[in-house]
Design a protein that fits this description.
heterodimer; A: about 500 residues; mainly alpha; two-stranded antiparallel sheet; 18 helices; about 60% helix; B: about 650 residues; alpha+beta; globular; disordered C terminus
Amino acid sequence: MVSYLARRLAFMVPTVLGITLMVFCLLAYAPGGIGAGLAVSGGQMSDTSRVAQMQAYLEDRYGLNDWVIVQYGRWLSRISPVKFGERDLRAPSGERVAAPRTIDDPPLAAAFPLPAVPAVEFTAASGDDLVAQFKKLQRDAEGTRREYIGSVRLFRDALADWARAQGDEMARRLDAKGSADPDRFRGVAFDAASDGYPKLRAAADSMHAKWLAARQAQALAHAAFRAGPYPKSGIPLLPGLVSLDTPDLGVAFSKNRPVWDLIAAALPVTLLINLIAFPISYLIAVPTGVLASVRRGGWFDVLSGFLYLSLYSVPTVLAGVFAIGFLANKQYLGWFPVSGLHESGAEAFTFLPYTDAAGTWHRGYLVDTMWHVALPVLCLVYGSFAVLSKQTRASMLDNFNADYVRTAKAKGVPRKDVVLRHVFRNSLLPLITMFVGIFPAMLAGSVVIERIFTVPGMGSLILEAIDLRDREIILANTFMIACVNLLALLLADILYAAADPRVSYE
Amino acid sequence: MQNRFGVKDFLFLVVLLATLGSVWLSMVQKTRMELAQGELKSKLADIEQQVAQLGRKLERGLEQLPQAAADAAGRRAATAGPEADAWARPGVAVERWSAPVPATDPESVPGFAVGGEFTELFEAQPAKLTPYIAGDVYSTRVLDRVCESLGRFDPKTLRMVGALADGWQVDPDGLWIRAHIHPRARFSDGQPVTAEDVRWTMVDYIGNPLIEAERARSTQDNLKEVKVIDDRTVDFIFKEPLFTNTLIAFGNPVLPKHYYSRFEPSQINQATGLLVGSGQFRLERLPSGPDQLDTQWTPGQDVVLVRNEQYWGEKPSLDRMRFKTIKDDLGRLVAYRNGEGSMMLPTSPQFNTVLRDEPGFEDTSYALKWTNMRCGYSFIAWQCGPRNGKPTPFADKRVRRAMTMLLDRERMIQDIWDGIGTVSKGPVNPESAGSDPALKPLPFDPDAAKALLAEAGWKDRNGDGILENEQGDAFTFEYTYATGGEISERIARFVKDSFAKAGIVMKTRPVDWSRYQEILKLRDFDAITLAWGSNAPESDPRQIWHSESVKEGGDNFTQWKSARADELIEKGRRTMGEAERMAVWREFEACVAEDQPYTFVRVAPWLRFVKREFGNVNTYKTGLQPEEFFRMGAPAAPSPAN
């Protein structure tokens, strides 16, 4: 058993990696690419080239220009507890501070030689000033880097203009959009006398100047980083090479909040609804299935089957609309609230209901939440009875024909015991399989219900993320669901072994 | 083996009961503590009210002192003499403004009472409220209640008047602006609004590369420097004389330096609810420092604003404003009817259906429909330049004009939007002075359109009912639109039919919204439908209409180039005088309307349902002014509800 468990757990790692790699590649190659939601629209801006520079800066910030496999590798290293290289620092606010990123060399360094980079001198300030010094250098590094990226963009535009001025031969090296990729101009001899060359040279010089400034600012910031304004985070395994640290799920770029915060806010809501819904559906469906199988063909069997199948056929959207239109509408029944999980002003409620001095009964937070959760749970649950009860009924009927049942009846075991202690326990295997399907469903939430009842759960979080191609949320979610799914399958197998002595993994 | 109830089962049962019992007792204790807290809170609110009243009395007394002294001495006190303008630069006129007053005084409306809560129903959750970092329209609605800028648009005339500023000077050459802050201006925590706050907001908040205020930062390109002259006077120096300079100086909400500088840039970037300003309302839940960031508002909760008791102008009569999100259209209407919301935005079909089917609806609700400065327009854009190297039929202006004349836009509005909306005639907001009321949209005239097409070379040469040009190519084109919504499908069908009647074959290309950005960027379309929004009476047309913006990164995705339009744009941008500039915009509007790079379809009015429990609900050219609303015969302040 132990070796079986070890094998299964070991196989999970490549499976999860494969799943996340596939999702990452799908996102990257989908039309719109990663971060389609990042696209900047001009509208209020006064200058086209500024928009282009801003786009270039955003792409650099999120590393969208690198190859897909490199981006994936970066995500993996962030999410793994084992970190390589320099350790991050941990600010007192709990936030992780990474070393300032290195600056790439400007393009076409052969045709436009780079200036020499003078060495920077850094003297660390003492005591509290160290933190202030680091913050200032960090801000400078970010600002100069931004300007450098913008100047690379302007250089590319100048290159495109120059190529167009040279005629078709050079213009062929431009891409479909009419912009210049510097790599396609490698080896081109730039004639100083050609038109457009002075502008190109000026753009290159400005780019080099900004590159120098950015390089120096980055070197200073890095030196300040190494001087240790904050304590290092994580546990070193091989100092300077390998360390252990908490996984970092990243910052969602559509919402600009840490992914972990978003999930931590949405997950309890989804769990609440699902943890209430699943026991209800099981507690109604399974006994009905047992009863239906015992009196097979009787009125209860036919009626419950008919009722459950009709409920199953009603689409969730329609059920939601009916629920809101009739059960929540004061013009009709109005027994339940329309949306959300709490009443307006529920923050001021007490937790339990109470009756005040004037004799009015106040609902209290707990009862209010239950009342609000009632309609979403109803919509989640009504369709699930059919499958569960039919499945229970079918496997019970299978077991009624078994020989041990005949033996038990012949021995004189009371009918109730035969059904509940013998037949029912042996029909549990299919139910166990379906039961472990709960766990991934609990994480995924139900998009339709969350939209109809404005419940801020996991379903709407992931749907919005997919719409905006927000890579971080989608990957974090996929990763979580993949892990939970695999663990749930493993749990199912273990439960089989527990429930059925015939199943063994030796 | 029998399953007897043994000692260990008994122990287990005892432990279980003890755990459940302690959980129950802790819930009871929590309830008791919350009741006590509720009492404390209401006492605090009372004290705050009293302190604010005392403060106001003191101020009024202080203001009257010089008047009293002068009266005693028998002289009239100088109200606005040379000393009052000591801050101003010599030689340039000073425009003076009084503290903001409501456009319609609520106290003059019968039924006026103080108190009550106003709930607005949003269609989607705002992701953040932090100013300049939050970008969506919902957070802007909240921000407008909490923060103030140096200037604002007068609701009735749409001219820029003073809000936080009680006087300003605009350089006739357009290179500097000097503003003086009202001496009484205060943030919601009582600290005065100073010139340093203005400078800090522009330079160290928006201009800080570590803070993700990208959009705001890029509109500030033309700002060279912000200088603090004295405690209440600030100078804005610009690089070039553009008319948008006044917007930069007067249109940005002023944030308190003493509050926001407590937080790190990364904390500000990631915070969801750090919203502090000098406006009439303030956020109820506001962290006072970085260690209280857990208490801030997060998406998923209602946004609650309470009246700013320290407001330096005329305080609003509403106690609270609440913003609740209900995503489902039907759910929103039901919630509004149930009384859970005081105002909602109905969709166009809902507006007409509700009014038609419920005769008593207008007894309990205002049904408002009006056009204001925030109404944008929807359009079909024609690709005037080459698409992937090949020219399209729409390069010819006559063809574009003909396409517009083939569409019966009045009928479209009637059929698809149930009559709500007006035909748009050009890129300028019809409420603005930059739009010429005498200019009419192109008429629906299929015969004239066919004549124009024939002139451009498109005739039915072989009798198959489809137009061909001289080379024999049939007139077909691709119409791109975003999926998601019955309305876009109906528009596509209507448009296809209209063109088919004239012999033009239209192929539809529905694409996912996320691809739209890419298609626009690559200019990869023949015809595409879109809408521009608006949030000010005038905007700089350069980014959309100038030929420079045809390059990648610009929004001139139709690749329309007109030397006359370029000239007018440049002229308008540099005209500082408002009346002259509006005349230039009128000419620009005529130029665009003549060339029809877009077929302008519809100006969508604002639709609102507001409960009649609220008074002084007036529609203005800027939209609505909720801070002027009051609740008729208001109930007592909200308590833990039933």
